[in-house]
Amino acid sequence: MLDKFSLKKKKKEASASNYSKEHIDLSSVPSHIAIIMDGNGRWAKKRGLPRIAGHHEGMKVVRKIVKASNEIGVKALTLYAFSTENWKRPKSEVEYLMRLPEEFLGSFLPELVAENVQVRVMGNKEQLPAHTLRAINKAMNDTKENDGLILNFALNYGSRFEIIEGIKQIIKDTNNGKLSVDDINEELFSEYLMSSDLAEPDLLIRTSGEVRLSNFMLWQLAYAEFWFTEVLWPDFEEKNFYQAIVEYQRRGRRFGGV
Ligand code: FPP
């Protein structure tokens, strides 16, 4: 027999299957959604498959969630695809992860162009292999005139790196007379971050049951609503995404006020 806790958990999980686009209030869709797509490795392990099979499956989910975001009028979707810490993984996994943007864009770029999606990448591009860089530059170039959903990949991204780079640039601009110390405030600092021309995320989703930020958009997520799910990223479906948005819409955001 299930105990009270397991029963409650089961009920909650079952309820995800009830969510569809129709449950969303289209007048208050989060403008910017950020996602930590976690659990690819565990998804593969559960099936006795190599970890890269999980990443491959996860790539297909990206397509579904981009489509769903576009349909309900999300303005920006930032996806954590590779962190500055992910270089510590086995060489073969890193190599595969660096091939994923090419694979994804090779298959879906025409669809993204047709759907008016604008592709962007934030992160330290200098360390990316030439083939990865070529694929993302082509995608950014082919979609630069699109004014629909902004699909922002965080690739070789780390929030601490981003903040330090911003500070260095502010110091340089102060030394060369472009800025004075009194100009430095929150708004100005945001302009020195890699997401400077995007609004801050309204909603952060993390899959796979982990409940941490893992060096992701530490500054920008200051007032975001967080939504966590046990679902592993390769199993994440539109109904889970809609559930996150419906639950976001039920929350009262006060931004420190009452
Ligand atoms: C974390 O899961 C996931 C990643 C480090 C890679 C994310 C990449 C994708 C979802 C593929 C889509 C990418 C593009 C560029 C289209 P994990 O490997 O840490 O999983 P685990 O915690 O279960 O081991």
Automatic annotation (TrEMBL):
Name of protein: Isoprenyl transferase
Catalytic site positions: D38, N86
Gene3D superfamilies according to UniProt: Decaprenyl diphosphate synthase-like
Matches recorded under Pfam families: Prenyltransf (PF01255)
Domain of life: Bacteria
Subunit structure comment from the entry: Homodimer.
Gene Ontology cellular-component terms listed: cytosol
Residues engaged in binding Mg(2+): D38, E225
GO-annotated biological processes: polyprenol biosynthetic process
Enzyme category, top tier: transferase
Protein role: Catalyzes the condensation of isopentenyl diphosphate (IPP) with allylic pyrophosphates generating different type of terpenoids.
Family as reported in the entry's similarity comment: Belongs to the UPP synthase family.
Cofactor annotation: Mg(2+)
Free-text cofactor note: Binds 2 magnesium ions per subunit.
EC number(s) stated in the UniProt entry for this protein: 2.5.1.-
Residues that coordinate or bind substrate: 39-43, 51, 55, 83-85, 87, 89, 206, 212-214
One Gene Ontology term of the molecular function aspect: manganese ion binding
Keywords: Magnesium, Metal-binding, Transferase
